[in-house]
Structure formats: structure tokens, C-alpha cells
Design goal:
Elements: H1 10-26, H2 30-45, H3 48-51, H4 67-84, H5 88-93, H6 97-107, H7 121-151, E1 154-155, H8 161-184, H9 193-226, E2 236-237
Length: 240
């Protein structure tokens, strides 16, 4: 009997860590994000016919700025751009959320992801992707646990076919994107290309770990069956 050794709970560590990191990055932008959420809620509460017929008093009036006001505006704009760079990290950490929106993008004639009314796409990603990314980080954590346990002749946790397919898709898509983005993407000074290439590479590796864990567990089960112990007596087997 192989003595079972506990495996560190990566399935909980990875999602919690990414959530804390996203909160840390987005905390200075909490006012802007909260305002966007309120605007979106107001858009859904207000009928569309009333939105298109706003009274004259609620229309925006553009007033030219004097030189002093322009200087203050430029400084504020520079500070906002520095804070805006923080928005890329939560998106890079949770890139697999693109796969969730992919069916809608394909079926949508405009070829754009679904975004709530009154909210820009970047704010929607910052709000939804850290939460949706928890599932993918949880799968990656289970893959790491499963691979480590398989090397100890233990099948725990048992990697399911859904997790294997998800990991395979992440591995292939991440590898292709990491290679093709620098080659075929247009040059944009505001877009952190290196960050997203590294993120795609990271998710390709994590997806490969999930697939490797499934293969290692399959080989371990096969070895047990060939040894005449299909119940897994020489090793500890668990599916959760």
C-alpha cells in the first residue's frame, strides 16, 4: 500500500490569489467602475423611448477651457492614463473568459461580445472576467494537484473529460495566440503586447498541465488494471 501524502490545495490558492490581485489592481479605479455600473443599471431601468427623448436641459454643453483649466485637465488625463494601465492585468490574468464569449461573438452579426447597456467593453471585462476566471483557475489548480498526486501513485483529484477538453483548448489556443500575436497584430503603443503574449503562454502551460494530469491518471489506472488490482489497492484513488 502506497501511503497517501497530502497535496497542496492549488485549486483554492490560484483562484483566491488572482481575485486578490485583481482587487489590488482595480482598487484605485473603484470610483470609475462603480459609476459605470450605476449607469448600466440606470440604462436598464429607463425605457428606451425616454432615453432618446431627453429634455434640452439634460443635454451636454461643451464649453471651451481656458489655459489654466487645460493644464489641470492634461495633468488629470496623465494620471488617469497611469491608472488605466492597471486595467490590463486583470484581463491578462483571465484571458480564458474569451472562450465563454466566443459562441456569442460568432453568432452575433456585429462580431462583438455581449456588453450590458451603458457600459464600455473594458469596464465589463474588469467586472466579469475576474469572477468568471475563478472557474479556469480552479481547473488549473486541480490539474496541478492531479499531476503531483499521480507522480506519487495517487489519483486525486480525478480529472474529468470536461476539464481535459478545457485544458486542451487552452493549451492550443494559448500557444497559437502567443506565437501569432507578435507576428500578425498591428503596432499599438497603448497595448501591452508583451504582457498578453506572456499571459497566453502561461495559460497554454496551465492547460497542458491539466491534460498531462489526465494522461498520467489514465496510465496509472491502466497499470493498476494490468497488475490485477482494478480497485486501486496499491494506490489511493479518489475522484474528488
Amino acid at each position: 500500500m502506497v501511503q497517501e501524502q497530502p497535496v497542496f490545495a492549488f485549486r483554492w490558492l490560484l483562484p483566491i490569489t488572482q481575485l486578490l490581485l485583481c482587487v489590488l489592481m482595480l482598487w484605485p479605479l473603484r470610483t470609475v467602475l462603480t459609476q459605470q455600473l450605476r449607469e448600466s443599471i440606470r440604462e436598464y431601468r429607463t425605457p428606451r423611448n425616454l432615453q432618446s427623448n431627453l429634455p434640452e436641459s439634460q443635454r451636454i454643453l461643451v464649453v471651451p477651457l481656458n489655459p489654466e483649466q487645460e493644464l489641470v485637465f492634461e495633468r488629470s488625463q496623465a494620471a488617469f492614463e497611469r491608472l488605466e494601465r492597471r486595467q490590463w492585468i486583470p484581463q491578462a490574468l483571465n484571458l480564458p473568459c474569451v472562450l465563454v464569449q466566443l459562441p456569442y461573438v460568432i453568432l452575433n452579426p456585429a462580431k462583438r461580445e455581449w456588453i450590458p447597456r451603458g457600459m464600455d467593453f473594458k469596464t465589463w471585462r474588469l467586472v466579469s472576467w475576474p469572477l468568471g476566471g475563478v472557474l479556469f483557475w480552479w481547473i488549473a489548480g486541480r490539474g496541478i494537484e492531479g499531476l503531483i498526486a499521480a507522480r506519487r501513485q495517487v489519483i486525486r483529484p480525478g480529472i474529468t473529460w470536461i476539464e481535459t477538453i478545457t485544458g486542451g483548448a487552452l493549451c492550443v489556443v494559448g500557444a497559437v495566440a502567443a506565437i501569432c500575436m507578435p507576428l500578425f497584430s498591428g503596432r499599438d503603443e497603448d497595448f501591452p503586447m508583451a504582457l498578453f503574449v506572456a499571459a497566453f503562454g502561461m495559460w497554454s502551460v496551465l492547460g497542458g498541465v491539466v491534460v498531462s494530469a489526465r494522461v498520467a491518471q489514465w496510465r496509472l489506472r491502466r497499470r493498476l488494471a494490468l497488475n490485477g488490482n482494478p480497485d486501486g489497492s496499491p494506490a489511493t484513488t479518489a475522484e474528488s
